[in-house]
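retry 2 of 3: previous attempt timed out while embedding pyridoxal-5'-phosphate. Reduced batch size to 1 and resubmitted. Inputs unchanged:
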Amino acid sequence: MAGKRSSELFERAKRVIPGGVNSPVRAFKAVGGTPPFIERGEGCRVIDVDGKSYIDYVGSWGPLILGHADPGILRAAGAAMLRGTSFGAPTEAEVELAELLCDALPALEKVRQVSSGTEASMSALRLARGVTGRSRILKFEGCYHGHADSLLVGAGSGVATLGIPGSPGVPEAVAKLTIQAPFNDAAAAETAFERWGDEIAGVIVEPVAGNMGCILPLPGFLEKLRGLCDRYGALLIFDEVMTGFRVAWGGAQRLYDVAPDLTCLGKVIGGGFPAAAYGGRAELMDQMAPEGPIYQAGTLSGNPVAVAAGLETLRRLEEPGVYDALASKAQRLTQGLAERARKAGVDFSTVFVGGMFGFFFQPGPVHCFEAAKQASQPRFREFFAAMLAAGVYLAPSAFEAGFVSLAHGEDEIDATLAASEAAFARAAEVG
Ligand SMILES: *Cc1c(COP(=O)(O)O)cnc(C)c1O
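retry 2 succeeded.
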């Protein structure tokens, strides 16, 4: 239960903000109750306005890989801010960030910075359509690529959490151009290409799905998409807004060794500020204005404060051993949860990759959205509520990934596991 101040603030918020939140995923609609209003963050913890402290596995939905209020980030962003907050003119730091990104991601030769993941995937799509002269796109059920019209069809994240089939406001003429296939279903992707092969501009995919829980790509799935795009002349777009610098240095494309034509980045590369990017081979990126005819722009793109925070984040992630450290934290957490679920007699499956993890209240393994939906929602709600009460802040939805940061210590992970024993016992009591 949220405290008194949170409840009061939520009432006030609902009067002036739709649903009381500025992004639907922050609401507690799927789990019930009132979201705690956060006053501050400290390392791996957030503290709400009623003074309750939580071990945080949301991390602002992915960006905070160094933890909250990291001193290095505060210093870097503060120093940038003292020189001015925005110029709308080129700066040296954004060149450094672009160089770093192109260096880290095998498939990036040129990159354009934008302010949100939505903008990145929307722009990548426009580029794919612009260079191929084709209109259709193929996406996968339960993958979320931001809220651009073409990409809301069969989307994950809040769309899945709230059970919205397709959003009103997306014209049917636009939605019709989005073809859907089940995640990890290479045969379905092939069938789509057999039918619409010369009309498909691009295939967009989360190389590790993180917006319907966390689902790993089956061996060969990403390679198959690469092959289909090559055969039919479509562009392969990896939406690495979540996975970029989260699952590995250089993202999932490096981890799985599959090179997309275009890559979308966001979350971690902004270090907790609004920054995102899309990029790919130079010949493709040079089709964007002002070099080429395809238009995309942004008043705050490459914002110097966001770029400073992003650069600081990436420099810290470049240090040796960082991703091993993240993975061993995620492993300790997920293994510990699985053991306790087994002891409580609760069907449960869990995976992690780098600093990203997920779990389902079903035996698994889970390879697609349909399977994710088979997991027990009542058990998730029960577990979520018990964990929150015990001071563990998980995403308020069974269709989201969780995140560990470099600030999560073994003590906090062990405290999380201790809290999970009672939470699993409660979950075991519901169907
Ligand atoms: C979060 C996310 C987005 C959208 O990013 P915003 O910054 O929220 O617009 C797009 N794609 C993926 C894979 C994401 O996880």
